[in-house]
Amino acid sequence: MKLSAFKNHLNNITELNFVLENGTKVPAHFHITEAGLTTKHFVDCGGTERTEKNISFQLWVANDYEHKLSPQKLLSIINIADKLFSYTDLEVEIEYQMDTIGRFGVDFNGSEFVLISKTTDCLAKDKCGIPTEVAEKSTSRCEPNSGCC
Questions:
Q1: What confidence tens digit (pLDDT) does each residue in 14-36 have?
Q2: Fewest Cβ atoms nearer than 10 Å: which of 19, 21, 22, 61?
Q3: Rounded to 10 degrees, what is the CA torsion of 129, 119, 110, 68?
């Protein structure tokens, strides 16, 4: 989800909630501890230099049950950070602590933001000699009897 869509949803809700794809709700007393621009500058396995930029929000849950972040407060945080984002409409990514820090994409289900699992991928399949049928199976979720696992 792009930042413009994220902000639009914040403008149209009265309560800020996040949920994982499996339906597990992020505890309501979460905080946004960081809002930033993340840049990943790398070389893929085919030797191509790439740069990836995202707007990142870090979701943190502590034992502070007295404060609940409102959509309006998050919008004010975003407005302060907008200069860091260079006023660009990039994809929003959420960092959330689980077994380790997870990076998630974001969707909206009409009332809550949904943290969408991200997956790895080979960006140079043509240079690595990976057959198309193998590449297609590896980009989908592995289901029993699907032949990918």
A1: 999 999 999 999 999 999 999 99
A2: 22
A3: -160
